[in-house]
Amino acid sequence: MPTNRIHLCLAKMSPTGAEQRYIQEAFTTNWIAPLGPNVDAFEKDLEAFIGGYHVAAVSSCTAAIHLALLLLGVGKGDEVLCQSFSFCASSNPVVYCGAKPIFIDSEKETWNMSPELLEKAINDRMAKTGKKPKAIIVVDLYGMPAKWDEITAISKKYDIPVIEDAANALGSCYKGRPCGTFGDIATLSFNGNKMITTSGGGAIICKDEETRKRAIFLATQAKEPFLHYEHEMIGYNYRMSNICAGIGRGQMTVLEDHINHHKHVHELYSSLMNNPSVSRVSINPNPDFNSNFWLTTALFNDGVDIETLCKKLDAAGIEARPLWKPMHLQPVYQNSPSFTNGYSEYLFKHGICLPSGPWVTDDDVRYIVDSIKAAIVG
Ligand SMILES: *Cc1c(COP(=O)(O)O)cnc(C)c1O
């Protein structure tokens, strides 16, 4: 561990050094390129883990979301319905496409997109613009699966495709089915702070090989199949490198361990955090929602100032952060229409993320909970 500080979620390599062996192999065979055997094998490993889907490894989850929007034909003047309570990378790619994000608030059980507001937004936008929104971006935030039955039903009813941003949710399941399989297209992140990492990277999960091939085409500058470089459209340089994929292959050997660790940490927090000022430690609404608990979160009652709390924890060597600031409250999106119920704003004002990553020990969790209790009393 680089410092004594307790971080939210720091990368941890496998104890067997598998990542370094795959990187060494790339050096030995001189596959220092944005393609190669590590990329192919990492994709196969992910396909095996998710089961029956077609995966392309790319440079980030942000790139994967951008590609997903392009694959669904999102372009200038289109509207895309986005979960407001998320990281900016869930919705920024909508703007890259020249399209317009419309933000939807969260419901109380999973903190993800409210199906009720989603349907209201679809009807309202169709009435206002005479046009159907082109896509819906739903997030399994902090690893918690969204209300997939309800959302899928609405997507089918109005025939609007869904992109599932499963950046946080590798290893989560809804009704026994893995996250990353609910959207028409889904995306994963392997950034340094996610469940596993490739230092930086992402993946796009497609339902058929044709879509995957199209994603790779767009991610490699849209080169037409000629001997010379022929381009009929604008492409992107979004493929994952063979070096990064080597890290990813090694990380796949500890993915289950990481998931179990995050779940264990969450259980420990839940059992220790009995305090009248704590209204909720992230919980499962019911057994259908099997979260990987990428980050455990805690909600506090009125009277606990979240910023002061985070600063006190910081002084105690603990990294803690307020929950995501909803996109509909971000200055950059001030002109975007939104459908709100106040809930994500409430979450932002009352909740924090807690250290949950593979370096966090049981003693760390006890120390963090004691520090929180001391901070909200003092
Ligand atoms: C991290 C994250 C992303 C972006 O992932 P990158 O790989 O860093 O581009 C997208 N959505 C959510 C919810 C995330 O947490």
Summary keywords:
Aspartate Aminotransferase, domain 2, Aspartate Aminotransferase, domain 1, 2 domains, eight-stranded mixed sheet, four-stranded antiparallel sheet, 12 helices, 15 strands
Describe the structure.
- It is a single chain.
- The protein is α/β, with parallel strands linked by helices.
- It has two domains: 18-252, Type I PLP-dependent aspartate aminotransferase-like (Major domain) (Aspartate Aminotransferase, domain 2, 3-Layer(aba) Sandwich), CATH 3.40.640.10; 255-377, Aspartate Aminotransferase, domain 1, CATH 3.90.1150.10.
- The protein is 37% helix and 15% strand.
- The protein is built from twelve helices and 15 strands.
- It has helices at residues 18-28, 37-50, 61-71, 92-96, 115-129, 148-158, 209-219, 242-252, 255-272, 306-315, 343-350, 362-377, and strands at 54-58, 79-83, 100-104, 135-139, 162-165, 173-174, 177-178, 185-189, 202-206, 278-281, 289-290, 296-300, 321-322, 338-339, 351-354.
- The strands form three sheets. An eight-stranded mixed beta sheet has the order 1-9-8-5-4-2-3-14, with helices on both faces. The chain has a four-stranded antiparallel beta sheet with strand order 10-12-15-13.
- Strand 4 (135-139), helix 6 (148-158) and strand 5 form a beta-alpha-beta unit.
- Helix 9 runs parallel beside helix 12.
- The model has no long low-confidence stretch (mean pLDDT 96).
- Bound molecules: pyridoxal-5'-phosphate.
- The site of pyridoxal-5'-phosphate (PLP) has 14 residues, from helix 3.
